[in-house]
Amino acid sequence: MEALEIAARRQALRLAARALEQRLNADISDHAGPTLPCSCGGVAQYHGRHGKTFESVLGPLHLERAYYHCEKCQSGFCPRDRHLRLEMFSLTPGVLRMTGSTAALVSFEESSALLHELAGVEVSTSQVERAAEALGIEIAADERSCVERMGEVAPTSYLGMDGTSVPMRKSEVAGRCGKQSDGSAKTREAKVVTMWTAESRDEEGKPVRDPGSITYSAAIESAAAPDTSPERSELAERVLRETTRRGFTDASRCVVLGDGSAWIWNTAAELFPQAIQILDRFHAKEHLSKVGKVIYRDSEQGKKWIQRRYDELDEGRLKCLLKALDRQAAKYEEALECAEYIRNNRHRMRYPEFHEQGLCTSTGVVEAGCKVVIGTRLKRAGMHWTVRGANAIIALRCSKLSGRYEDFWERRSHRPAA
Question: What is the pTM of this model?
Answer without folding.
Answer: 0.91
